[in-house]
């Protein structure tokens, strides 16, 4: 990615994984779907079952080759979130409730102003947290050990 493209990255994303969206431009214009993945480094989203392209895959060891249909990413500006009350594409605004919680609300033409809930799928992690086997060593012990040049048994390090 060039430096010009990096300058135009969306800073405050209002579209998240699991949102119901309508495609407003492209070959699937007017169709609705669910956001499967958000690619923030490219300002793109993948909508489940939409924007299908044919991909030619060469046969390799352990998998078959052939022509497959895969979902291609769409630019984030080509999709709009659906208002839960009117089922029309709307822009998203941010409001704070009386108790101080931040919520997304629908705004723009044809919007009801209702709250757009966060999808339940966001509570499930796509990649599990890494787990490291072995004892957890505090960082100050590692620094002390390097400083004194001793190993765990108290013997000088070789």
From TrEMBL:
Cellular compartments per GO CC: ribonucleoprotein complex; ribosome
Protein name: KOW domain-containing protein
GO MF entry, a single one: structural constituent of ribosome
Residues annotated as domain KOW: 14-41
InterPro entries xrefs: KOW, Rib_uL2_dom2, Ribosomal_uL24, Ribosomal_uL24_C, Ribosomal_uL24_CS, Ribosomal_uL24_KOW, Translation_prot_SH3-like_sf
Biological-process GO terms, alphabetical: translation
Family: Belongs to the universal ribosomal protein uL24 family.
Signal peptide: none
Keyword annotations: Ribonucleoprotein, Ribosomal protein
């Amino acid at each position: 990615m060039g430096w010009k493209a990096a300058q135009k990255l969306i800073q405050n994303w209002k579209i998240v994984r699991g949102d119901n969206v309508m495609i407003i431009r492209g070959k699937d214009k007017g169709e609705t779907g669910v956001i499967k993945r958000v690619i923030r480094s490219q300002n793109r989203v993948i909508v489940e079952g939409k924007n299908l392209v044919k991909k030619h895959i060469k046969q390799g060891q352990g998998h078959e080759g052939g022509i497959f249909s895969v979902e291609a990413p769409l630019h984030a500006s080509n999709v709009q979130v659906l208002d839960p009350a009117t089922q029309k594409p709307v822009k998203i605004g941010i409001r704070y409730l009386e108790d101080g919680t931040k919520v997304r609300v629908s705004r723009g033409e044809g919007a009801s102003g209702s709250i757009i809930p966060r999808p339940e799928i966001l509570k499930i992690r796509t990649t599990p947290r890494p787990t490291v086997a072995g004892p957890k060593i505090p960082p100050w012990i590692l620094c002390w050990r390097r400083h004194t040049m001793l190993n765990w048994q108290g013997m000088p390090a070789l």
